[in-house]
Structures are given as C-alpha cells and as structure tokens.
Amino acid sequence: IMENDDLILPKDFPKLKNDAFLRACHGQETNHVPVWCMRQAGRYLPEFREFRAGKDFFETCRSPAACCELTLQPLRRFPFDAAIIFSDILVIPQAMGMDVQMVAGKGPTFPEPLKEPEDLLLLQPKVDVNKELGYVFKAITLTRHKLDGKVPLIGFTGAPWTLMAYMIEGGGSTTHSKAKRWLYRHPEASHKLLKMLTDVIVVYLLGQVAAGAQALQVFESHAGCLGPVEFQEFSLPYLRDIARKVKDQLKESGQDVPMIVFAKDGHYGLEDLSQSHYEVVGLDWTIDPRSARERTGGKVSLQGNMDPCALYAPKERISEIVKKMLEGFGTRGYIANLGHGLYPDMDPENVGAFVEAVHTHSRHLNLK
Ligand code: 1CP
C-alpha cells in the first residue's frame, strides 16, 4: 500500500482530542478515569483473527499499514482512552541478529537460543536501530496520523531481563530455569547481555517518540520468576537506567513523554518501582489497590489491575468489580486496565462492559 506522503512524516500530527490518559499519567484531574487494555489488539477480536489469517506474525509486524490497521481495530469498537502500537517485544532480539518465529499453538520460538556466555559473540555488537527497527517507527508515524487525534498512542518495549529470558529459554517457559541458571552461574555475562539490551532499548524508545509515540510502556513480564534479591541486581538497575537515559535525552529536546513500568508479579519491588523515574507503575491483579497506593506513597500514578479472568463474569458482576477497583485506587492519578493481557477466548462484549463501567463509575465518583 502506498501511503500519502504526509502520513509518513512524523510532523503535523492531528490535534489530540482526548487527553485523559496523558493527564492521568501526570496525576492531573480528569473527568473520567481513562482505560485501555493490554493486548487490546488481539485474537479476542474476530476482525483481528480475520485480518491476521494466513499471514506470518512477524511479517505483519514489519508492515506499517497492517500494524496501523490492527492498532485501530479495538478503537472502532470501544471508547478506549489510549491506543498501543501493534508490534511485539521480540523484535529487539531479532534486531540483534537472532531468529524468532511465531509457531502456531506454541508461541514465539527461537530455533537457536543463547546457551553459554560465548554465544553473546553471535549477537550484533552495534545495532543500527533505525535500519533494523525502522518499520516500527513507520508504523507509529502512520498510526499517529490515522488516529486523527482521537486518543494518544503508546509505544512499548520489553525490559532487559524479560528479553534475556526469551533469548535463553528460546520461547515461553514456566520455570525460566535456563535463563535463571545464567544469573547464578554466569552473573558477569548476564550483566553484559542486560547492558547490551538496555543500550538498544534506549535508542529504540527514543526512536518511537521521534516517530510519534506519546507515552512509553516497559514490559517486565517475567519479574515474577525473580526474587527480591535477583530483582535488585538483574532487573531494577536496568529499568531505572532506561527511564533515566530516555528522560535525559527527551528533556534536551524539551519533550515530556510519560513512561509506564509494568513488572508482572513484581509485588516485592513496588516501593522501588515507584522510585525509578517512571510516572506510572502498572500492577497485576495480585496487589490490592489500597495497599498499592500506600506502598507507592502518592509518588506515581497507578495502572491496572483487574484480573483478566473477571471478564468471564456476567456484565453486572464486571461492573461491581470495577466499582470496587475504582474506590480502592481513587479516580486521580489512575489508569484503569487489566492486570495482564486479554486472552483470545474473551468476549468482546464483556470488554465493552469493562470500559463502560470504568467511565460511568468514575464520572459518578468524581461528582461526589
Ligand atoms: O498471531 C497472533 O496474533 C499471536 C498473539 C500475539 C499478539 C496479538 C503475540 C504473540 N504478540 C501480540 C502483540 C503484542 N505483543 C502486543 C500488541 C499490542 C496490544 O497489546 O494490543 C504487545 C504489547 C505485545 C507484548 C508482548 N509480547 C509481551 C509483553 C506483554 C505480556 O503479555 O506480558 C510478551 C511477553 C510478548 C511475547 C509474546 N508474543 C506473542 C505471545 C503469545 C507471547 C508470549 C509468549 C510466552 O511467554 O509464552
């Protein structure tokens, strides 16, 4: 598809009409609590399955027009307050020279995962992010234009530890024992790899902002298999480094782009995460809203955290659960979301009920 020239340049973007999400990131007042869902562009939508049918997953990721379409699909159905660019966290290991395939029924698979520290020599030492990941930047620019200012566009990345875990495990894992073996047996090589990933991630996130991303989320999806000690050594310093470096660069050009850190099952690190230069801390459903507020001491906005499986409940029950969640978090400095992504068997109607419940109850609570 040939796009109009105006749509490929990251400038003259349409004016933003709904800034509730960005205001909430900064802890400012909003009329309603903004809401979006992790994996809102996904297989629970019939139009997503139809569009993706027969196409290779990472080929789809490399097509800016396809990414734009998939990003916009959920927004045509639901009044979400933010869009998240369709892509995947595993495009970074690909950019560093690793082969990653999406295997149906199995998920992402690395035919040749990293096995021993010597394998680090097989990775690209200097990644040309613009060349290797320019397709993501193009997708972001096109989507920001096509969104027409409806809602802000979120860019994202996987965090270093989560990406390292995939690169060593070669795919999903329940124990992450191969990757954790590195932490205990090869700590130096682990830090070397985490540092390499951090360097690429910083350039990648800055490229996303230059392309038009209006917020950035860092997914530490595998925080849960680390304990507090390993988290302190192998995750937190890199999460902090990423936020600090991205922010320092953005400040130089006078830009202010809120950053969200989502460390799934990293409840032991909540205090530290709230002091890591991110405006927003994302929460999974294992954390009670009130205790999350207490433990983060009003220092950050919070995002989350309804159990995705609550979407299997009848709509009236979803509405009650949402009301409790809003009362627990309060309506200020809060972005409603699920505690993790939507699953493919979820009913879009119930996703709609979730979004509506957030908007309705929060407007009501704000009037009290
Ligand atoms: O064919 C398909 O459609 C496969 C399903 C799918 C989708 C829709 C995958 C495979 N990735 C994606 C898109 C995706 N991935 C988005 C798009 C934007 C949106 O949220 O709407 C995002 C933000 C991601 C990020 C991602 N990929 C994460 C972090 C979030 C999380 O879930 O914790 C992770 C861990 C991945 C890896 C990945 N990609 C796909 C799968 C099935 C997995 C998980 C594999 C595993 O660990 O078992």
UniProtKB/TrEMBL annotation:
InterPro entries assigned to the protein according to its UniProt record, in alphabetical order: UROD/MetE-like_sf (IPR038071), Uroporphyrinogen_deCO2ase_HemE (IPR006361), Uroporphyrinogen_deCOase (IPR000257)
All copies of domain Uroporphyrinogen decarboxylase (URO-D), residue ranges: 34-43, 154-170
Pfam short name (any one): URO-D
UniProt keyword Cytoplasm present: yes
Cell compartment(s), UniProt: Cytoplasm
Catalytic activity as recorded in UniProt: uroporphyrinogen I + 4 H(+) = coproporphyrinogen I + 4 CO2; uroporphyrinogen III + 4 H(+) = coproporphyrinogen III + 4 CO2
Chief subcellular location: cytoplasm
PROSITE patterns: UROD_1, UROD_2
Similarity comment text for this entry: Belongs to the uroporphyrinogen decarboxylase family.
Protein name per UniProt: Uroporphyrinogen decarboxylase
Highest classification ranks of the organism: Eukaryota, Metazoa, Chordata, Craniata, Vertebrata
